Amino acid sequence: MKILHVSPAYKPASIYGGPTLSIAKLCEVLSSKCIVEVITTTANGKTELPFSSQNPITIDGVSVQYFNRITKDHTHFSPSLVWNLYKRLHHSKIKTIVHIHSWWNFVALISCIIAWTTNTPIILSPRGMLTSYTLKNRNTIFKSLIHNILGKFLISNCYVHATSDQEKWDILKICKPKSIEVISNFITVPMAQNIQHQIPTFSITFKLIFLSRIEEKKGLELLFKSLAKCSFSWELTISGMGEYAYIKKLKELSESLNISASINWTGYIANDQKYQILSNHDLLVLFSYNENFANVVIESLISGTPVAISSHVGLSDYVKANDLGWVSEIDQAAVTRTLNNAFHNIEKRLRIRKTAPSLIKAHFSEQYILNQYLQLYQNLQ
To answer: Which of 22, 291, 247, 250 is nearest to 133 (CA)?
Structure first.
């Protein structure tokens, strides 16, 4: 069995954040059990990765072939990738399953058409892009036309993979795939978990961290306005990348709220530094308007750091069920109240720091998740 993964971007294109890393981790783990190949573009934001499309290269044990794109935006139009996919499927001599990642771009849409016309089984992982929020956020007319003219039909011929129950129900509200399965992302477990951390008291500054791609749906404006209303002393570390214009807008907002001195912008944080930095903070904050899974929630908890997230984050039900942090509705008063509760409840934060790492390892074991993916693929043979 061969699994051909099609994605508009692949590592080392870290600018796209968690989804790109999740796709890579999935391919790396699967490669020990079946034939895994990846075709992708050289997309790296507005720049291109320095790879040739002539031959595949091996990235962390996975065969990856990068193709140039014509458009340098989120449409990721790459005729050479499309032609290569057609030839692969048309001449394939072994059973192949096409696993498409993302949506609303030419790589995903055209690849779906090609796989359908060649009668190839299709698994679609929308990665948070098939929700009412994404339909209504940016390019709404274009998305609506594509969805109603072509998208619904294509998805009805796909086996859809969602990473959380929340994403599953979001998808089913707007389309009807052949079937839909919920399987979480793989999580990279840090090598060392014996990280000491001082539990905060009322006399020290509350250390908050946001670690994600910096974009509008992440709710940073809401966080800033809520923090401006908090009465305790706090520091916020913002780690991640985003568009220059949007980050500039956020910095101007922080200045207008008189909170800029309490915010530290670090830029991109490498994976080998991520867990130590998370552990050195008191609370991860992520008040997103839409989030299909949010790897960083699991990464924070496995580091022992509690989380404060919105009810629109895919893992919010898990956090509530296991009492691993605080879940807030999306409004300023609720977020301010949530932050105050997290600051004052030192006992809960101490318990989470002690118990969360082992709980996460048990609930998100690599072997358990791998078996779920393998079963998904085997059902399509």
So the answer is: 291
Assign residue 182 a region (left: φ > 0; alpha: ψ between -120 and 50; beta: otherwise): beta
pLDDT tens-place string over residues 259-314: 999 999 998 887 778 899 999 999 999 999 999 999 999 999 999 999 999 999 99
Residue with tokens 């997309």: 43
Where do runs of H (alpha helix) occur along 160-304?
165-174, 220-227, 244-256, 271-279, 295-302
Domain that holds residue 69: 2-186+365-378
User: Within a domain: residue 87?
Assistant: yes
145: helix, coil or strand? helix
Does one domain contain both 305 and 267? yes
For 39-78, the pLDDT digits (tens) are 999 999 888 999 988 889 999 999 999 999 998 888 899 9
Compute φ and ψ for 194, nearest 5 degrees: -85, 65
CA 215-216-221 angle, 5° bins: 110
